[in-house]
Amino acid sequence: MNIVNILVPNLPESVTEATIISWLKKPGDFLKENDILVEIETDKVVLEIPSPFDGTLKNIIVQTGQKVTSGQIIGELIPSPEKNNVSTHYQKSKNEIFENNTIFNPSVKHFTPMIRRLISTYNLKNVHIQGTGTKGRITREDVMQYVNKNIKNTDINSIHDHKNRQEIKNNDRNRKIERVKMTSLRKKIAERLLEAKNNSASLTTFNEVNMEPILNLRREYGKLFEKKYNVKLGLMSFYVKAVIEALKAFPEINATIDQDDIIYYKYFDINIAISTPRGLIAPVLKNADLMSMSEIEQEIKILATQGRNSKLTIDQLRGGNFTITNGGIFGSLFSTPLINPPQSAILGMHTIKERPIVVKGCIKILPMMYLALTYDHRLIDGKESVGFLMRIKELLEDFNRIILNI
User: Fold this and answer.
1) Is 350 among the catalytic positions?
2) DSSP 8-state symbol, 8
3) In this structure, which topology does domain 4-90 adopt according to CATH?
4) Of 29, 172, 377, 398, which is the active-site residue?
5) What does the DSSP assignment read for 37-90?
6) Which residue in the list 89, 142, 381, 398 is annotated as catalytic?
7) Which stretches make up the Lipoyl-binding domain (predicted)?
8) Tens of pLDDT along 98-122?
9) What residues does each domain of the chain span?
10) What is the pTM of this model?
């Protein structure tokens, strides 16, 4: 009898373990190809492992709620007799959460726990949703699009306030506290923030930039840009382009410390911090120096959408040499961002505010933005950090420098 081991997918270098959320089949169950076997959650994504062929689930080795690591055997499959020459190990992740029915009915037992949680959380009963997944199956993104389109924000807030929280009552009935279980992502964020603070000599330096030239460019060419590329001309593409040129000028910042060595990266993978319902994540723009402005904007739009719907793959979150975070979208005027380990620096962008500025002896009202660079002082000296920010300032205040490479 041929037995195939089910293995945990390869996890990113920064992810040491994952958690078995639930087994969707039990030993002895017959499986069809692509039936979901198990859901695994890391601090970044939820992975589903489908059956690679028709067969039977022989054994569950690691139970629900237990921690697992990359490549660990978690179960065993028996292929159907007609399946010959199959590998004795199966290691595959499928980052698509789907169901077989286009009508939600909480009584349907084959729904995965995640979809059943969505049904319960948003009180969805007999709701018709067109599936966009494999063979017309409903994805989690389909569900969230329906929720965002058909349920008002006030209703969503009241639903979340009512569900998924444990209320602990004190003697006074009018005085309550709530205890909420931390998600894996939130726990990992907490761990990495402490790691960044405790394992580096962090220091933050600041500057400010006149954003009027960039805003004028967007006003003049924004509509043409969107018409041609079907994506809005945002600010982040300008930031990414400026950062790449500054990293070329200051290679110490595009580097990291590895024990007694310094690793200098000769490529430019830029992490973009994105806020999601589960917490802050930083997917990667790989080889960003080879991307056009439109490609950067399109890729950021895709990453942001997938991130908010928990659809990012491990590869989209793996690696990165330098991080840009933009608290300005939430109105942040000033901040000291924390380094994203094992990187050596992070750039914080902020809200653009009109302020009186002295220009050649005259006071002008200009749209100004503060820049904040947090860096590891073990590797980067003050001269390089200030020079890096000055280069960012020069490029954003005169974007023609990038075009002319000066």
Assistant:
1) no
2) P
3) OB fold (Dihydrolipoamide Acetyltransferase, E2P) (2.40.50)
4) 377
5) EEEEE-SS-EEEEE-SSSEEEEEE-S-TT-EE-TT-EEEEEEE-TT--S--SEE
6) 381
7) 3-78
8) 333 343 444 444 455 566 667 667 7
9) 4-90, 98-166, 185-404
10) 0.64
